[in-house]
Amino acid sequence: MMRVETAPYAVQTITKSFIDMRSPTSTALELVRNLPSVNIAVTDTSGLQGGRIQSRSLTDADMALMIDGGPAASAAYMAENVESEDVDSVSMMPGSSPIDLPVTSAAAGVLNQATHDPSHKFGGTMDFSYGTNNLARQFIRLESGDVGNTGSRGFVSFAHTQARSWFGGGRNEKIHVDVGVRKDWANGSYARAFMGWNLEDFVVDRYGTANQFYDFKRTGNSYGRKAEFDAASNDYWKNNINHWMQLFLTAPMHVVLTRHLHFDLRPYYNWGRGWSGSAGAFSGATSGNTYKSGVPVATGTPVTSFFLQDGAFSVGLTAILGYDIDKHNHFELGYWYQNQDYTQHFPSSVTTAEGANPSPNNSTYQIYRNGSRVYPGNTAGFEIHSLFFQDTAKYFHDHLLVNAGFKYVMSNVEGSKNSLVMRPCV
Question: CA 363 to CA 349: how far, in whole Å?
Answer without folding.
Answer: 9
